Amino acid sequence: MSASPTAASSATGPDLLRLDYQLCLAIQTAGRAMGGVYRKLLADLGVTYPQYLVLLALWEHGELSVKRIGELLRLDSGTLSPLLKRLDAAGLVRRERSTDDERSVLVRLTGKGAALRDQAEEVPCRLVSATGLDEAEAARLRDALYRLSDSLDESLDDMGSGAHD
Known about the structure:
Layout: H1 5-9, H2 23-43, H3 49-61, E1 64-65, H4 66-73, H5 77-89, E2 93-97, E3 105-109, H6 111-120, H7 123-131, H8 135-159
Antiparallel strand pairs: 1-3, 2-3
């Protein structure tokens, strides 16, 4: 289903609407496939992919506010709250109101959550291996996808509230 980049970039007129020329479909199918690989890789850890992302943020930064986790993962509180509740119920994190600001909820790893880090260390290498890319290609792709996300977010902001549903 893939078209060569040259063919896609030189498409004109009706060819622009060919399914295999659509960047959105390529990203969607890659995301679906990546999700499937992550489900297999994370099964032994007993966490879902979104839970894994929260754990990555906490392993890297230590205690974080719910707001900061949302910023790091680009998730809204409506998505994040039930996710954190499940991690708390599993004994991997603890959520507590900040003593400095009662509106803020702080999240920290439990001993069990911190210990899971050792088991998770092989996940990134196994994921890169599953992509068929070498480490440099994977890093370039990651960087390009971050630039794409930033550009799309900026374009969306530029479009303002006049966008059509």
